[in-house]
């Protein structure tokens, strides 16, 4: 009994100190930090990682409080989102109740609105059709930043769209907007170009060169002739276009219409956005796929024809 009483006194004193030091919350950065608790993870491991993220002020005090309240063995696995303002008492309560458990989903680079909606809907979070409708109304194609998200499973479609656009605004810096101005382009034009680069470039190291090809064609008023824009217009996904496909009636068909399409064809990743802003120092006007994800580039039509003949031979050997 004496030992238990002493333990209570120690805990009480520690709690007073915590409040005095601001460890109970209401201070610090309010920015949300994603936090995962794995199945079977110990309270000690959770406390250590919370401390490393500066979400709690002391691993020892967190564990002492968890043991004192009988919460140490009640921490639930899941995805959470905490801020340094929350304090260890709130964080422990949420970990124990699971009330802050979040749903994880990953949007790959190059996903369009429909594909994004399908991924999130597969988690049971939203109505796919409603998400697509709201995203279309707000013209969010291209602006739902590809990323791994940890979100409240009860969030509405519009709130999820807002969270993804917020991620875009965080990654696309003011310096990038300034660079777009230097190129005499709007950010919407940059994102549109970046979305085409995202779909055309298989090899990351070729992004900037492919971007240069499109910049060069725009400057010379040559049609972009991007297969990716035609596939987007048609709403299909296939390896190669037919000649008939290139006549598909859509403003997104860059075989028929000069310049950039009316808007992005997918949400590009940040590296494709950078490639659109900083194209390679290249005079190339053409590129053709080798069939292995890489491309051959050419400055003239004659060179491009030779490249096509070479790649056709390679593809025939691969069959």
N-to-C span = 82 Å
Beta-strand percentage range? 5-15%
| Overall average residue pLDDT | 88
Based on CA inertia axes, which overall geometry fits?
Answer: elongated
What order do the helices and strands follow?
HEHHEHEHHEHHHHHHEEH
Please, could you describe this protein's structure?
- By secondary structure, the protein is mainly alpha-helical.
- The protein has 3 domains: 96 residues, Dna Ligase, domain 1 (2-Layer Sandwich), CATH 3.30.1490; 69 residues, 2-Layer Sandwich (Dna Ligase, domain 1), CATH 3.30.1490; 134 residues, no CATH class.
- The protein is built from 13 helices and 6 strands.
- Strand 5 and strand 6 form a beta hairpin.
- The longest helix has 20 residues.
Blueprint of the fold:
Elements (H helix, E strand, L loop, with lengths): L1 H20 L11 E5 L5 H10 L6 H10 L9 E5 L4 H11 L5 E4 L6 H9 L6 H10 L10 E4 L5 H15 L2 H9 L4 H14 L6 H13 L7 H8 L35 H8 L8 E4 L5 E4 L2 H18 L1
Helix pairs in contact: 1-3, 2-3, 5-6, 9-10, 9-12, 10-12
Summarize the structure.
This protein is mainly alpha-helical and 319 residues long. It folds into three domains: 2-97, 2-Layer Sandwich (Dna Ligase, domain 1); 103-171, Dna Ligase, domain 1 (2-Layer Sandwich); 185-318, no CATH class.
Keywords:
319 residues; Dna Ligase, domain 1; two-stranded antiparallel ribbon; 49% helix; 13 helices; mainly alpha
């Amino acid at each position: 009994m004496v030992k238990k009483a002493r333990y209570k006194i120690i805990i009480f004193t520690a709690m007073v100190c915590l409040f005095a030091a601001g460890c109970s919350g209401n201070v610090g950065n309010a920015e949300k930090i994603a936090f995962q608790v794995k199945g079977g993870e110990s309270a000690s491991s959770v406390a250590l990682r919370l401390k490393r993220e500066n979400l709690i002020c002391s691993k020892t005090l967190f564990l002492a409080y968890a043991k004192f309240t009988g919460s140490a063995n009640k921490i639930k696995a899941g995805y959470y989102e905490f801020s340094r303002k929350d304090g260890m008492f709130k964080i422990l309560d949420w970990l124990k109740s699971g009330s802050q458990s979040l749903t994880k989903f990953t949007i790959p680079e190059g996903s369009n609105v429909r594909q994004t909606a399908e991924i999130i809907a597969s988690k049971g979070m939203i109505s796919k059709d409603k998400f697509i409708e709201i995203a279309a109304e707000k013209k969010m194609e291209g602006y739902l930043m590809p990323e791994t998200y940890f979100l409240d499973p009860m969030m509405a479609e519009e709130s999820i769209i807002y969270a993804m656009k917020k991620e875009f605004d965080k990654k696309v810096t003011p310096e990038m907007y300034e660079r777009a101005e230097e190129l005499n382009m709007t950010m919407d034009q940059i994102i549109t170009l970046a979305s085409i680069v995202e779909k055309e470039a298989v090899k990351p190291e070729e992004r900037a060169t492919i971007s240069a090809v499109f910049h060069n064609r725009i400057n010379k008023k040559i049609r972009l002739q991007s297969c990716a824009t035609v596939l987007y217009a048609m709403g299909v996904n296939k390896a190669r276009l037919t000649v008939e496909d290139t006549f598909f009636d859509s403003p997104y068909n860059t075989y028929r219409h000069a310049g950039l399409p009316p808007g992005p064809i997918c949400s590009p990743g940040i590296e494709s956005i950078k490639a659109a802003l900083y194209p390679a120092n290249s005079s190339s006007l053409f590129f053709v796929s080798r069939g292995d994800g890489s491309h051959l580039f050419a400055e003239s039509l004659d060179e491009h024809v030779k490249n096509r003949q070479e790649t056709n031979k390679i593809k025939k050997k691969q069959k």
